Amino acid sequence: MAGELKCTYEDIEADVKSKMFCHRLRAKIAAVEVAEWNRENAQAVAESDEWVEQNGLPLTKYQPE
After folding, report:
1. 63-54-47 Cα angle (round to 5)
2. Which are the contacts of 45, defined by CB distance < 8 A and separation ≥ 6?
3. From residue 35, how far is each of 15, 24, 64 by CA, in Å?
4. Which residues lie below 8 Å from residue 56, measured CB to CB, with a gap of 6+?
5. Residue 63 burial by Cβ neighbours in a 10 Å radius (0-12, 13-18, 19+)
6. Residue 65 and residue 56: Cα distance in Å, rounded?
7. Residue range 14-33: average pLDDT?
8. Which of 5, 14, 53, 62 is most buried when burial is the number of CB atoms within 10 A of its CB?
């Protein structure tokens, strides 16, 4: 049959391995970006936490009890 799609186990295995590699690479990149963001923003987060400890959460008076 002309134009018949032939797909072997090796083709499927290669595709799955490629997708797994891409997924793992994206996960690794995301983890590196999160670590970088945490490092770059550590001081701001600490200052924000300190402010909340001293002043309480903003808009708390509007939350239902």
Report:
1. 105
2. 38
3. 30, 16, 36
4. none
5. exposed
6. 15
7. 96
8. 14
Give the residue-averaged pLDDT of 13-30. Answer: 96
Tens digits of per-residue pLDDT, 27-52?
999 999 999 999 999 999 999 999 99
Q: What percent of the chain has pLDDT over 90?
A: 72
How many angstroms separate the CA atoms of 25 and 33, rounded? 12
Could you tell me the two tokens for 60?
A: 């708390």
CA angle, residues 60, 62, 64, in degrees to nearest 5: 95
- Looking up tokens 């590699």 gives 21
CA torsion angle for 56, 58, 63, 65 (degrees, to 10)?
Answer: 0
What pLDDT, on the 0 to 100 scale, is given for residue 65?
A: 81
